[in-house]
Amino acid sequence: MFWRMAGLSTASAVEAILDKDSFTLEELLDEDEIIQECKALNGRLLNFLRERVQVEQLIRYIIEEPLEDVEKKRTFKFPFIACEIFTCEIEMILKTLVEDEELMSLLFSFLEAKETHNSLLAGYFSKVVICLLVRKTIPFMLFIKDHQEILKHLVDLIGITSIMEVLKRLLGTDEHLYSNYTSAMQWVEDTDVLEMIVDKFGSSDCPEVHANAAEILCTVARYAPPGLATKLSSPSCTGRLLKHTLENSRPKSVLVNALSVCISLLDPKRFTLGTYHIYGRQLAHGSMVTNPETVEGMLGSLGDLLALLNVSSAEGVLFTTYGKLQPPLGKHRLKIVEFISVLLTVGSEAAEKEVIRLGAVKRVLDLFFEYPYNNFLHHHVENVILSCLESKNSQLADHLLSECNLIGSILEAEKDSTLTAADSDKLQPTVPAEGRKPLRIGSIGHLTRISNKLLQLANTDVEIQSHLQENSKWVEWQTDVLSKRNTLENVYSWACGRPTSLHDRNRDSDDDDYHDRDYDVAALANNLSQAFRYGIYSNDDMDEAQGSMERDDEDVYFDDESAEVVISSLRLGDDQESDSLFTNSNWFAFDDEKVANEQSVSSMASPSPNADGDGDDDDDNVVIGEADDEFKDTAGSSPPADMETEDSTSKNPSENPSEPEPEKSPAWVEWRETSSESTPPSSNPDEATVLPNGEVQIDKEDNGDDTDKKSAENSPPGASGDETTEKSPEASGVATTEKSPEASGVA
Fold first, then answer.
1. In terms of Cα–Cα distance, which of 640, 618, 627, 619 is closest to 600?
2. Among 350, 377, 353, residue whose Cα is nearest residue 365
3. Residue 688 phi, psi dihedral angles, 5° rounding
4. Cβ(343)–Cβ(288) below 8 Å
5. Basic and acidic residues composition bias: which ranges (predicted)?
6. What angle do CA 316, 320, 324 make, to 5 degrees?
7. Over the stretch 420-436, which tens digit does the pLDDT of each residue have?
8. Distance separating alpha carbons of residues 337 and 365, to the nearest angstrom
9. What is the pTM of this model?
10. Whole-angstrom Cα distance, residue 16 to residue 7?
11. CA 285 – CA 220 distance, rounded (Å)
12. The three-state (H, E, C) secondary structure of 90-119, written as one string
């Protein structure tokens, strides 16, 4: 750390306290620099903090709630600093804590039954415990194994999110931690901690408890060791979970969160709650095949779940911008539909038969049309329909098309695509607003996709094709409405909005678009790495020793792989963009070219449309700088004969009208178009002006000095002070884009 270096640091306030004959822990905790000193491994400070007395006091700051009349720093600052000291992961301090059973018992005494637990202190407690679990895994897990009542205390406080995070780590949901310390953590599989968590759905009415318990169980279903995951997916455990769900006295949050756990067991890749990828772990199950016993254990409660879809209109009214919902769909009914959707994707024959027997598909299809503006519901019902149509069981598709009358329902909705008031004898939960123009129903997009899917499958499935052809209204609607709609909504055929070249491409992400580029990322990365390695972007004034040292660092920290990551992370422009980042020919220039280009930029200026040539306007002057002497020396030398001819031609284009002008470098053309105005020289009276024909004219102030005039008179023809951008560098201090090593004025 720079403050530890001699001559750069001042006396630390912590050192001043440590120099005293007597001081207290509170004095150190009150200093703002104590955390920095701990991270800097201040030996005197760490030797003091590692003492058992000090570690005990730090723990008490974290677990004990202060009295009401104490100072604020005791309430807020000291607990925070104490937590930060532990989470600095200093070996000697953690060792003092984890190897002392009394101190560990003191730490976990925070979990003992109280009326309330301070959520702020619970957060500090969670950070310290997780730090011990990660850094001192073996002794920590041995302590928990000897005191398994701690697991029960953690489950009792599962409603506190910080405590829930501790419990998730203890269950082995961190892949790296579990794989490295399998023997130390495997004993958790033999405990009844999962049963205790499941029972929280039946013993607590708090929605936070239900949500946190469901999050732990969903995480176990996806990331936990196989032993715990198998235990959770057993029919006894799932039956126990659904039993709490269907109790009449339970709040609806129990149903919603319990079904989220069931969905996780059926489809481990489905993220239904929170963000479970926080530990950076891939799915442990991969292409996991759902246990048939798990599915059969859930089918016993499917009939009771379907009964919950029938809700009386007297339960509530929700007013919306398009009318009112009487009753609203509700999260619990939406979750039941999602559960049925996932259940059908498993491909279980027993589940498909039970769905047909109970009429689940017909009920969810009715909900689709009863709530025409709930796109969440439409998405799940569409998945149900697709699962039925693509199922290997032909009875399921026949049930959907015949008994559920899918085609007739689609045609009826398309015929009357506006929201209208229903008859008195027909129940319609969605009621339009009075006195307003009827709105179009919001399920047309899903109906179009379902219809197109029917047509697609009819090409290979004779049964589906027969159902479509038997309905004459469908054939007529397909020709008059669906085909025209598909043509209109085909975004790839639009003249604007989507490039026509994307007609045959199906892109699902930005990553696919990136891979379609012609850029050679490996080559670009190599060039970028070489550019940094050879110091192209280093300071020209840097001395050789410092430059070599920095290049060594760049070789270490900016290798080819790092360069490829940098290039890959850049957003590559379209091919037609002329100013794209990677179409610049001078992007990866090396030393010789870079120096020559910098010399040319410093010696030449672009033409200004408002150039007066009088030298009074600062914007019309060009700085010659350090190249003046070199310019004067080369002006007096004779250029080669072939360069003189080229020079004269470029000077007087009107004398050779039939001879085309030599092609100029694109770099200079672009530079001339984007003309920049330069500043006058600070110490040289010479001024250069770029004439409209591309010549550079050197003007000198008339100060009575005839030396320069004589030098110009004695110079041979063709070596005048007027230079063009295309003449030889031997006759000019200006660097050109087309030069040879012999003709360049730059080494």
1. 627
2. 377
3. -120, 135
4. no
5. 697-712
6. 50
7. 776 555 678 888 888 88
8. 10
9. 0.65
10. 18
11. 11
12. CHHHHHHHHCCHHHHHHHHHHHCCCCCCCH
